[in-house]
Amino acid sequence: LLARGEFETETPEPTGYQTLLILGAGVVGALSFAFSDSFWFNAEEGEVYAMSALCTAAVVWIMLKWEEHASEADSDKWLILIAYVIGLSIGVHLLNLLALPALAFIYYYRRSANPTVVGGIVTLVVSLIIVGSVLVGIIPGLPTLAGGFEVFFINALGLPFDSGLIIFLLLFVGLIYAGFRLSYQRRSQLLNTGMLCFVFILIGYSTYLIVPIRSSFHPTINENNPEDVLSFVSYLKREQYGSRPLLYGPQFNAQPDHYEEGAPRYKRQDGKYVEILPRGQEPGYADADKMLLPRLYSYDPAHIQEYKKWVPDLQEGQKPTMGQNLGFLFRYQIGHMFWRYFGWNYIGRESDVQQAGVIGPLSPSASALPERIGGSFA
Question: If I label 88, which of 73, 298, 316, 375 is the partner at 20 to 30 A Cα–Cα?
Answer without folding.
Answer: 73
